[in-house]
UniProtKB/TrEMBL annotation, chain B:
Protein name: Transcriptional regulator
Record domain ChrR-like cupin: where: 107-194
InterPro entries, sorted: Anti-sigma_ChrR, Anti_sigma_zinc_sf, ChrR-like_cupin_dom, RmlC-like_jellyroll, RmlC_Cupin_sf
Gene3D superfamilies (alphabetical): Anti-sigma factor, zinc-finger domain, Jelly Rolls
UniProt-listed Pfam families: Cupin_7
Signal peptide, first to last residue: none
Length: 190, 217
């Protein structure tokens, strides 16, 4: 057993994460859930904080995300998506729901709408995962930063430009270059 | 449905990231439901989101975060999330609208010019969303929506043609403000499309801009 500093999160491989989630799904394994919580909870918190959420709200939504992980674990299909991808979509949907309630406080929390069901899988999840990791790693640090920002915050290119203190044209060309490189790497690995 | 026009990768990425805004998400979702190619791209961008989450550096949670979550699990027992919300398809003028409009308020057509009707869609969780349905007669030009940001137009029925080619049901036009285009509805029938304009532009000014070329005001 490793000795962890307090607050430091576990790093676990994709295979281990999958086993943990399957254990939660098949036998409501609380230790497995605790490990998933230790791995993802602190990362989801950063994910929400980057989008401008308060620490209290981020903490609250981390709990909500992990509660849904527990509830929906039996719906997880390892052939379709990696655990990190599946949990990302749960956190993303909760953030969309949260942002809507910010704009319209009369709205009650709902089960967020999922992205429409896919028609058929062309790639195996593992293959797709490997591809995106390779693609991301091949981007320059600046391109990576702008892609990450697109996942963290709902902002227009103009707003991103003023946030980063760089001209709009630079933001546009950085995004375009990053997308072209991503697309090139993804296509070549298929 | 033969689809030839797709959203840009950037639009699909922001849709998968959940950072695109409510109106555009409804328009892009309509296309993604109909287009296997873009559905696969969305899965890829979701996987990218997973990879980004995985690489995001951790922020310490409060010491009792796990205990609190487990207590909530105990409190609610084995309740399953009810995921089903099957409801009737939405139909306007005998034309089935995309399912991504479920939950939205579809209002009556309003005449805004010769051969042109518009209905502003009520997006319940986003009163500022600029989402409209347009019905334009054969041979008519689509009104200028007054681009300020990216404009997304999904073809529900009929077809139109502009400098980018012909747009038929399932196609999406994803154009930023620099693209000069003047879509003209094809002569064989009217065209219904769903359009979203990104940004916080107020609707009043949107109407104004739409009426401008029609009435010359
Ligand atoms: Zn497509």
């Amino acid at each position: 057993m490793t000795n962890r500093e307090e607050g430091e999160s576990l790093y676990l491989t994709a295979e281990v994460l999958e086993k943990l989630l399957v254990a939660v799904a098949t036998r409501q394994d609380r230790d497995a859930f605790g490990s998933l919580f230790g791995h993802f909870g602190p990362r989801i918190k950063t994910f929400f904080r980057r989008g401008g959420m308060s620490p209290e709200m981020a903490e609250e939504l981390v709990q909500e995300t992990m509660l849904r992980v527990w509830r929906k674990a039996s719906h997880y299909d390892p052939g379709r998506a990696a655990v990190s991808t599946w949990i990302f979509t749960i956190a993303r949907n909760l953030r969309i729901d949260f942002n809507r309630r910010q704009r319209d406080p009369s709205l009650l929390p709902s089960d967020p709408v999922d992205v429409p069901p896919s028609i058929e899988d062309e790639l195996l999840a593992a293959e797709r995962d490997e591809n995106v990791r390779l693609a991301l790693a091949k981007l320059s640090p600046e391109q990576q930063a702008i892609i990450r920002l697109s996942y963290y915050i709902e902002k227009s290119q103009t707003e991103i430009a003023s946030e980063l203190g760089i001209p709009l044209g630079t933001v546009k060309s950085r995004i375009r270059l990053a997308m072209n490189r991503l697309r090139a790497v993804l296509d070549e690995d298929q | 449905m033969t689809i030839t026009h797709h959203p840009t990768d950037e639009t699909l990425m922001r849709y998968a990231a959940g950072t695109i805004g409510a109106g555009p998400a409804i328009v892009v979702g309509a296309h993604v439901s109909a287009c296997p190619h873009c559905a696969e791209a969305v899965r890829t961008f979701e996987a990218l989101g997973g990879a980004i989450l995985e690489q995001t550096e951790p922020t310490a949670l409060s010491a009792d975060a796990l205990a609190k979550t487990l207590a909530r699990i105990d409190a609610e027992g084995k309740r399953e999330a009810s995921g089903d919300n099957h409801s009737q398809p939405i139909v306007i003028d005998g034309v089935r609208l995309p399912d991504t409009l479920k939950g939205c308020e579809i209002r009556r057509w309003r005449w805004i010019g010769p051969g042109i009707h518009m209905s502003r869609v009520g997006v319940p969780h986003d009163p500022e969303a600029n989402l409209i349905l347009l019905k334009v007669g054969p041979g008519r030009a689509l009104p200028d929506h007054g681009h300020v940001g990216t404009e997304l137009t999904y073809i529900v029925s009929g077809s139109y043609t502009d400098a980018l080619g012909q747009f038929t049901p399932g196609d999406i036009a994803d154009v930023d403000e620099h693209v000069e285009h003047q879509p003209i509805v094809d002569r064989d029938g009217e065209c219904i499309c769903l359009a979203a304009v990104e940004g916080k532009m107020r609707f009043n000014s949107l109407i104004g801009r739409m009426l401008q070329p029609i009435f010359g005001i």
